[in-house]
Amino acid sequence: MFKDKADRKSSQGKSDLASELIAVKILRFQRRWANWMNGKTMKMSRRGQIGALAGLSVVCLSFCFYMVAGNNGNAKALLLNPDYAITVRSPYLLGTSGELMMDSLRLREAYGRIISFRAYMDSLGKTPEGRKTLEHMLSSRPGMVDSLLEAEKLLKQWFK
User: Fold this and answer.
1) What per-residue confidence (pLDDT) applies to 31?
2) What's the CA gap between 132 and 35, in Å, rounded?
3) The whole model's pTM is what?
4) Which residues lie closer than 8 Å to 134 by C-beta, 6 or more apart?
5) What is the pLDDT of residue 10?
6) Residues 101, 96: Cα–Cα separation, whole Å
7) Which residue numbers in the chain have pLDDT < 50?
8) 90: helix, coil or strand?
9) DSSP for 27-40?
10) pLDDT on residue 90
11) 91: part of which helix (H) or strand (E)?
12) Which pLDDT does position 58 carry in this prediction?
């Protein structure tokens, strides 16, 4: 259970030796790779080097766009239909004289969404998988329940 200091030093020395060997192998591989790449690029003309850089840039940008926009598999929909992105509509409209007026239809729609979401959250607590989902939602969005309650309270006051 308890090791001697000599035992600890010897095992620590072995791990240091192993880490040094791994570091040496990694550095050797990196040096070989760099030398190989230098040899390949030295054979290319200036125009070829610029073309290779442009091609690499296009590939990297395409991959980044795919990761950002196509994360949920809807990259085509986002490219073909820019309105596909999630938008939030304002509950205010401009009146005939330019003043802001509340759009009660949009507010009622938002209120309905809040009520249905609260019902969904309540239904999640009925099954073990639902409780896990609910715990994950609440841990990743700590102020969500408070915001929902506050929004519901404000909308209830508006519709009285």
Assistant:
1) 95
2) 52
3) 0.37
4) 121, 124, 125
5) 55
6) 10
7) 1, 84
8) coil
9) HHHHHHHHHHHHHH
10) 57
11) none
12) 95
**By C-alpha distance, which of 160, 156, 155, 157 is closest to 91?**
155
**At a CB cut-off of 8 Å and minimum separation 6, what does 111 contact?**
152, 155, 156, 159
pLDDT computed for residue 153 by the predictor: 85
pLDDT at 79: 54
Of how many residues is the chain composed? 160
What residues does each domain of the chain span? 1-43, 56-87, 92-159
Distances, alpha carbon 78 to alpha carbons 57, 68, 89, 134, in Å: 22, 11, 19, 29
Tell me how far apart the alpha carbons of residues 124 and 6 are, in angstroms, rounded to a whole number.
57
CA distances from 22 to 15, 16, 26, 27, 32 (A): 11, 10, 6, 9, 15
Q: Quote the pLDDT of residue 1.
A: 45
Residue that has been written with the tokens 């609440």 in this structure: 138
